[in-house]
Amino acid sequence: MRQVPQRTCVGCRGTFPQKQLLRIAAKGPGGVSLDLTQKMPGRGAYLCYSEECLEKAKKRQSLQRALRCPLPEIIWIEIDQAVKSAHKREE
User: Fold this and answer.
1) Which of 7, 20, 24, 51 could form a cystine bridge with 46, CB 3.0-4.6 A?
2) Does residue 1 belong to any structural domain of this protein?
3) Whole-angstrom Cα distance, residue 4 to residue 1?
4) Number of domains in the chain
5) Alpha-carbon distance 91 to 88, whole Å?
């Protein structure tokens, strides 16, 4: 039986199956984007589809630390929209 890859959320520090998390990829200086396919090259960080985790990651700057680069405001907006759209799909 194949093992399911586990990743840690940078917001709550919880461990979850990789497919349940949102991946943010950094491709060098200023090249940060959402990785919805979870296959983009570059350094990646994972975040729960939860608004609480998003706020914790923003407050602690854990996403910037994990990616080792600053995040532009547009990326925070995209992450927020992805989290909200995931909640709408669940309802």
Assistant:
1) 7
2) no
3) 9
4) 1
5) 5
